[in-house]
């Protein structure tokens, strides 16, 4: 079998040969193959094939990492619930520590200075919407409940989705019929006696018991760490009227989502902010993550993930979900060829009872393979595409529309040319995994047609030079 890195390693030399060949081309009446002398005088033939056998199956992911102490870049957290026959029931809830606010110049913690004569007006949990986490039925309303976390989140440097955080079952706040309104909001600040335009948000009044506890019993705690020990955090969950999840923004660079205390001291109105992140200099940014729960035993996807012979449909899902495993062993049967291009094409399934208008296809899929040590790593096309912020140019993998017989459909195309060459050379194995680009801060999903679909089969389009 030919070592296909030949072309890459000798690209310059091959270019020189071709340039010389072009310069010395015979007249138009004579036929010759440019550069054919490189291959012992053999004529080269270009072929395209799309009939290689591909083995495919859906694989369930048992857990994903939902929190890592060193990852300070995640800013989108999810709340809501999706339920339909294909993927079952999937619930997402926000869990976050609560901290004192800080001041950057000079850097210091701002401890609340509630006094005995102060009068509490209200405490409001403000959650800024993040449109990037929005998924499902946009017309749904949400009944939100807030619970108190009862275990110390600071004992964890990382968390996985199969770890359930303990909470007090009695809610400390609730609000009903919340619509996902993404318009900006005018908010009055009584301390400054001004109205400010703020980003889209939901405002949840805290209950009297927890408000009074924060205002009176926990008001003499000087250190933020001691406050977090006394009030360990919150969990926010939703019971939506239909399948719907929304994103919440907790930005590590500023105070957006937070708890506001409105109170008065005599005739003076005052406001204090508790942060859902920790901006104290020299510490981590506070523990916050999305907790995922699933009920999928009776879901259609489970039939496919437990029976690997079922490949008519393939399921890909962000969060704690599913991936697709493909076996390209048929590539290894090719001999005396050069792979010029290999592109995977897969069409999104249109199914009864699955509304693509509500459950829109995943924006971007990526691919990984096992290295020589059996570790999963991104294939070259994806790795370099992400590195240079040109994933579409290097790999593709974004959902696109096309029309067939008057019907609008969705599909993905993925360039795996270098990966196919490495498989043929034995540098990596023939098995790859297709998964969403974003996992922790999305709940999107896609159902794909498998390789045996009569009209839109999953296929590998390969252009070859036959020697």
Task: Explain what you see.
This protein is mostly beta strands and 467 residues long. The chain folds into two domains: 44-59 and 321-466, no CATH class; 65-295, no CATH class. Helices cover 13% and strands 42% of the residues. It has eight helices and 29 strands. A hairpin with a 2-residue loop joins strand 17 and strand 18. Residues 1-36 have low confidence and may be disordered.
Mean pLDDT: 88
Q: List segments where confidence is low: pLDDT < 50 over at least 5 consecutive residues.
A: 1-36
Helix share bin: 10-25%
Number of strands: 29
**Rg, Cα atoms, Å:** 28 Å
Tally the helices: what do you get? 8
How many angstroms separate the termini?
Answer: 11 Å
- Please tell me what the overall shape is: elongated
Strand content: 35-45%
Structural class: mainly beta
Biggest sheet character: 13 strands, antiparallel
Q: Supply the number of structural domains.
A: 2
Quick rundown:
This protein is mainly beta. The protein has helices at 5-9, 11-23, 208-217, 224-230, 300-306, 380-387, 391-394, 417-425, and strands spanning 45-49, 55-60, 65-68, 76-84, 88-96, 99-104, 107-110, 119-136, 141-148, 158-160, 173-179, 185-189, 194-198, 201-205, 234-240, 244-249, 258-265, 268-275, 288-295, 313-317, 322-327, 337-347, 365-370, 376-378, 400-404, 407-415, 431-436, 445-449, 459-466. Residues 1-36 have low confidence and may be disordered.
